Amino acid sequence: MNNFVYSIPTTAYFGKGQIQILGETIKTHGGSKVLLAYGGGSIKQNGIYEVILEQFRKAGLAHVELSGIQPNPRIESVEAGIRVYRENGCDFILAVGGGSTLDACKAIAAGVKYHGPVTDLFVDESGISSKITAVAPLATILTMAGTGSELDMGGVITVGNDHKKKVVLHPLLNPKFSILDPEYTYTVPEYHSMAGVADIFCHLMEQYFTPDAATTVQDRMNEGVMKAVLEEAPKILTDPKNYDARANIMWASSMALAGFQFVLGKPGFPFPLHGMGHELSSRYDMTHGVTLALLTPAWMRHTMSTAPEHLPIFAKFARNVMDVREADDAKAAEEGVRKLEEFYSGIKMPANLREAGVKEEDLEMMAAKAVENGKLGILTSIGKEEALQILQMAL
Amino acid sequence: MNNFVYSIPTTAYFGKGQIQILGETIKTHGGSKVLLAYGGGSIKQNGIYEVILEQFRKAGLAHVELSGIQPNPRIESVEAGIRVYRENGCDFILAVGGGSTLDACKAIAAGVKYHGPVTDLFVDESGISSKITAVAPLATILTMAGTGSELDMGGVITVGNDHKKKVVLHPLLNPKFSILDPEYTYTVPEYHSMAGVADIFCHLMEQYFTPDAATTVQDRMNEGVMKAVLEEAPKILTDPKNYDARANIMWASSMALAGFQFVLGKPGFPFPLHGMGHELSSRYDMTHGVTLALLTPAWMRHTMSTAPEHLPIFAKFARNVMDVREADDAKAAEEGVRKLEEFYSGIKMPANLREAGVKEEDLEMMAAKAVENGKLGILTSIGKEEALQILQMAL
Fold first, then answer.
1. Average pLDDT of chain B?
2. Is B51 on the interface with A (CB under 8 A)?
3. d(CA A210, CA B8)
4. Which CATH number goes with the domain that contains A66?
5. Digit-coded pLDDT (tens) for B162-196
6. Pairing verdict, β A154-159 and A62-66
7. Is B261 helix (H, G, I), strand (E, B) or coil?
8. Is residue B64 part of a domain?
């Protein structure tokens, strides 16, 4: 096991009605004028917006608003947020929404304390956003489970005409607190709920499939969250207002990335599936989690066939998570992938890239862009050729 | 799933040589004069003491010492610590040792900020130590894995001539940071290493065996840590310097109680085994973890026979943790207990109370004292009669 630092500085207030602590808790973190950021305005339909304003009133907090943050949030939204925050003398940021709003607000929180272009704050050679030295205090109210942004230190921002995905990553970006009320996810449409599930599962898998570092505790905990996701997600399909299922999926989202706890002690994690998935989102504006469900089985089979020395970990995944009883490693591994495909199909993810609208002639360009900042992968090294093979397998 | 607040304010520096951050990190937390507390002086034999002093010198920190904190630490040690801290104008506490030293230092940290008898600070009717409103900053260096005190908010102190165990419990009691270097546990004798393992396993079980609250994520994560303990502990027996095994057991100790994360969302946890185990420690000065290994199978069988409606959770434990394949719940549950007994026997715990030196004539007195502050248990209600039955079954 490698050395590591474990730190989860975000407090999570989990459950029904936890929003009642909002106003006073912002005040205890020094907030008096809040930048309230949200997306397309669904919070005005489901009543959350009114409860937030009531909390502000009760606690005597002023606020200004930044609305319209889009999925796959763009740098322009971040820059707008920085302007609004500064022009209005804000001292606290409240992000209300899913991962996109939360991610944009993390970049805003860092940007308002930095005197230069916010693009300086993306991850650099050091592996984190080393130019971040201070951030505005940030809290979140989660309305969609998936990205894990509510309890982690990262965010993904889209930049430029070619929709490049860039990452902000720094321990200071952990929210001060996050309010996680599973009831807020009741109205998330089925497709997006299940894309969130696929995102959660991929976060867990990308921390799991690494070279062995004898991290038994982390790996067994990770398997536990994966099993919980497999067990609970289908219940949402049959009953979108199943509180306990929504609660478990929301908590799985948070646990998957809290302090990156399942990759602690391991040798890095370049997140190969996220690297390629982002290119699909960029080219087709495809929902993030869906791209991951599409690529994961292909990536698994590609790794299993090109690097059979890693079969044991795929067999372990099959046995410990997918409940495969097969004794032979190669057969067990393949059976694990097949059961995972069954799971994705059960939660109504598209069966392949073609079904999701991807054109064969785009694959080469996307493969090239996925690796333009360096090879991906950690079990195997994924360059352009390997990325193309995986995309073709997923087609 | 019930509402909960998740908060783990302690940063863990895990791995070889992490002590090198000690001096500077104490300074970032405002420390300039440190109360250095430790137990019997083994840190002077294994070299840790010298490294600490070197860290103090480099960082320009003054210090005073409190040594000789005993296992099952007594209130007198706490009171002595409070005096030393105050008389020397300390502003930081560094606890170096196992759970006993850490627990004593938590009480000292609260006591130095309280103007009244430290006995006021034990858990009251509110369920926590409600009179604690401020604490001195505390850091820990763990030299023995087991109690989980390094990443939680509680401590156990022994009081009076009848050696009564009392608890301090408050979110402010989380250490600011803990240094967890698995190499520091290489020299812990086998018996105490394995007693620590039994303690860890019991913490996990007492959070697991509760009425069903649909906490799938928490329960599957808990099962994962339990499986890791079963897998790693025996490796220490054959090779006490197996770094990865020591690392996994140390991290399991921390994960088991970090933020009490596996009981979040559940309806309380009166820790019945700890309640009874403390009476064995008081009467016979028996190592804490050993008492738990002795009582757990008896408690399981007692619950399974007196409250068969709870058989499904015992069967689930047997299947998900102990790898039992039996389809019938009652048979699976019994097979799970049998395999757990096998595990305890494998890590050289005594087979029963009699073998551990307990006298039959003391059982009734211990049963009475175990419940004198109220009934124990959460799956079933354990009064004096039930406690006596369990003790008799364990004899």
1. 95
2. no
3. 26
4. 3.40.50.1970
5. 888 899 999 999 999 999 999 999 999 999 999 99
6. unpaired
7. coil
8. yes
